[in-house]
Design a protein that fits this description.
It is built from 11 helices and 10 strands. By secondary structure, it is an alpha/beta fold. It has a single domain, classed as Rossmann fold (3-Layer(aba) Sandwich). Strands 2-5-1-6-9-10 form a 6-stranded mixed beta sheet, with helices on one face. α8 crosses α9. The two termini are about 25 Å apart.
């Protein structure tokens, strides 16, 4: 992967959004969401983005991963046992496996972190270690303390910006082929329509986080390969992690089954990043970042193929 072009695009986008933001908000940090599928490089790129903004622009940047807001392993196991028929909840990943209340507390405190000018506020960010429990992962004691002042807050994750859909639209998409993965992907992988509808309800709770965000960066596969590249990228990611930690993590078969659980999220909820969702009155609730969105499409080798704004 060649990160420099992507990081440059991301940095320029954040700086433009920050300039607009500061015209109206002098104390509130700019909140930037970064979304990309497993293995696309979003975590790596977000780290490089932070380094660039700190070194080149003298900004203070706080970075959070939605992965670090998963429930502890014990609670993930409890969720899986409580809903044994729903394969989408058999492990971390989908809405319903995150600690939404904790995330809300952290985002709220970061939003207000610059308000107290008398003393420096500190916000603790938890850490989730994906290598533990045979790749199932768990929250660990260490984390990161974010100290005021903060200029930019970045949240990155696979489903950041996803919005719930209507039951009618879920019913329609469930019967369609999944591009690159077969005509009957969901049934072949053991996913039921009611499983997706369950996740749809849980996403309503998780999506409450999105109201905090001012700008958006999306890293997505090219339109011709929207899903199949994700399996390759995620497998490479797991191999790299295991090479560095002595072999702790998932087998190749486990990685494939792991990615399987994420595909419904992209198919049913992914276009919420640009489309938003229907509100209770039947109107459309637009995402708060529209007009401040950047989409970077990447090819099989994660090279930049196309760049657009939304």
């Amino acid at each position: 992967m060649e990160p420099a072009p992507k990081v440059s695009l991301m940095r320029e986008h954040v700086l433009v959004a920050l300039s607009r933001h500061r015209a109206e908000h002098t104390k509130v940090p700019l909140f930037v969401a970064v979304q990309g599928p497993q293995g696309s490089g979003k975590t790596f790129l977000t780290t490089r983005l932070r380094e660039a903004l700190v070194a080149e622009d003298s900004l203070k940047v706080a970075v959070l991963s939605i992965d670090d807001l998963y429930l502890p392993h014990e609670q993930l196991v409890a969720v899986a046992k409580a809903y044994p028929e729903n394969r989408l909840l058999q492990g971390r990943g989908q809405p319903g496996t995150h600690d939404v209340d904790l995330g809300t507390q952290i985002l709220t405190r970061l939003k207000r972190i610059n308000e107290d000018t008398e003393r420096k506020s500190v916000v603790h960010i938890p850490k989730f270690d994906k290598s533990l429990h045979g790749g199932e992962g768990d929250r660990v004691l260490e984390g990161t303390d974010i100290e005021a002042p903060v200029d930019v807050v970045v949240l990155e994750g696979w489903c950041v910006g996803f919005y719930p859909s209507s039951e009618e639209e879920i019913n329609r998409r469930f019967e369609l082929p999944v591009q690159g993965l077969g005509d009957d992907f969901f049934r072949a992988r053991g996913f039921r329509k009611e499983d997706v509808l369950d996740i749809n309800e849980r996403l309503k709770h998780l999506a409450s986080w999105w109201s905090y965000f001012d700008a958006f960066i999306q890293i997505k596969p090219v339109e011709s390969h929207p899903y199949d590249y994700i399996y390759k990228w995620r497998l490479q990611q797991e191999h790299n992690m295991k090479a560095q930690n002595g072999g702790k993590g998932m087998t190749d078969e486990q990685v494939e089954k792991f990615v399987d659980r994420y595909i419904p999220g992209y198919v049913f909820f992914g276009d919420g990043v640009t489309n938003g969702q229907l509100d209770k009155a039947g109107g459309v609730q637009r995402p708060p970042w529209l007009g401040n969105g950047l989409c970077i499409q990447i090819g099989e080798g994660r090279e930049v193929v196309n760049v657009s704004k939304f």
